[in-house]
Amino acid sequence: MSKVLVIGAGLAGSEAAYFLARHGVDVVLYESKRVNKNPSQKVDTFAELVCTNSLKSMKPETGHGLLKLEMKALESLVLKIGHETSVPAGDALAVDRDQFSLKITQTLEQMDNVEVVDMNVSDPLKLMKELGADHCIIATGPLTTDALSGWIQKEISDDDFYFYDAIAPVVDADTLDYDKLYFKDRHKPVSEEEGESADYLNAPMNKEQYELFVKELQTSKKVPAQKFEDYKFFESCLPVDIMAERGVDTARFSCMKPIGLEMPDGTIPYACVQLRKENLLGSAFNLVGFQTRLTYSEQVRVFRMIPGLEEASFLHLGSVHRNSFLNSRELLNDDLSSKKFPDISFAGQITGVEGYTESASMGLYVALQVLRKLNGKEIHKFPVETGIGALVNYVMTAPKPTPSNINFGLLPPVALTKEQRRLRKERKRIKKKIASDRAINAFNNFYTEYRI
Predict the structure, then answer these.
(1) The dihedral sign for the CA sequence 63, 68, 69, 71
(2) What region does 90 belong to: left with phi over 0, alpha with psi -120 to 50, or beta?
(3) DSSP states of 240-290 as a string?
(4) How confident is residue 401, by pLDDT bands cut at 50, 70 and 90?
């Protein structure tokens, strides 16, 4: 019988262990939290939900709902226990955190072919040899232990093991007011990037707008540093609210610098916010240089003061924290196994996804691919039209490891008929419905043929 070593009993590791064990594989699950918790861990049980108790929307017309449909087909442990421990939350799946974590732990510990070991792993290759394991899945999350982080950097990643202190927010392109914005790359003649061919969309501000915006940045509510975090920032990557605290003109000479961003009439704005395309589709933009400590509600309020963003929908809000991520595009194969050590795979947040269901789905994806290899079958990438396929495609193509949650901006664009395009108020809903239906059909067709 095959044996797989799984390191980390978070959402991704728990899913991977359960999936493999359910399909007859012996699993040895190593978790260090009962020996030495990391700064974010509070309980001894597995799949601990640290930030919130919400697993997000269940509606299939949302990215999270779409992901859940695919996870259900893969018989997800997280979804199964999530429903068993759910609490009222409208269209979202929210859970009793303690019961959720306890039941996942009990389920895994009661499986005959799952052995749980409470120990910190520092050398996966050595441990695999000692156990006689055929494969190893590392699912240790963004706060991987120092010992294992050191091994990853020494043996696999070198300098491609990134620590991010700040992430800028991302907005839905369909919710922007383009009458107040203009496309232009800094210092390039307008004629070279007419229309949407430029990489940057610009939101100009006059003096009054800018100074009011800076004032709100200075006085807005910030997320306090956790006990285990020491806010030390690189000068080249300061949160925009810290720039505002340093002086009213600091941001105007940094991330809001207007030089080289002439407006269509040839004038230079007093200040300018640049939005960079988040993907090749141009369906999402990130606010360049807008890493921030602002609370989520304050980010929405303050950033909607930017011209053209008054009704913006945020696909991802900014944050400041210490995280470790692999440069998956350079270091991993399509099945998220290591290029250097093909018998070692990575799953969950460490690969470059963000969010509970996203991490869990990567655990399922990797476990499925490992099972196929153990059964002598080739790996099969999920179609990019699916939720899981879109996430894997993102982490395997992102130029730099910037964590992302699931959103329709990661999926290929959909085409609308002339009649549908005329329905401006309904256009966004129609596009999501078409993308959702396409994703469901693509997943069902794919999984029927390649399930194991």
Answers:
(1) positive
(2) left
(3) HHHHHHH-TTTGGGTTT--TT---TTSPPPSEEEEEEESSTT-SEEEETT-
(4) low
Q: How far is CA 272 from the centre of its chain?
A: 28
For the purposes of burial, counting CB atoms within 10 Å of the CB of 46, is it exposed (0-12), middle (13-18) or buried (19 or more)?
buried
For the chain, state the CA radius of gyration. 23
Cβ atoms of 138 and 148 closer than 8 Å: yes
Q: List, in order of start, the domains of the chain with CATH numbers.
A: 3-164+322-450 (3.50.50.60), 169-317 (2.40.30)
- Residues 369 and 20 sit within 8 Å (Cβ to Cβ): no
Instruction: Assess contact for 293 and 141: CB atoms under 8 A.
Output: no
Q: What pLDDT score does 359 carry?
A: 95
> Would you state the pLDDT for residue 226?
54
What span, in angstroms and rounded, lies between the C-alpha atoms of 238 and 259?
20
**Torsion angle defined by CA atoms of residues 327, 63, 166 and 32, in that order, rounded to the nearest 10 degrees:** -70
- The single residue listed with the structure tokens 């963004």 is 142
Q: In what order do the strands lie in the sheet with 182-183?
A: 182-183, 200-205, 271-277, 284-287, 170-172, 314-316
pLDDT digits (tens, 9 = 90+) for 161-170: 766 556 788 8
Residues 262/268/273/274 CA torsion (nearest 10 deg): 20
Find tokens 């940045």 and name the residue. 217
The C-alpha angle 215, 218, 224, rounded to 5 degrees, equals 155
Contacts of residue 259, Cβ cutoff 8 Å, sequence gap at least 6: 186, 187, 268
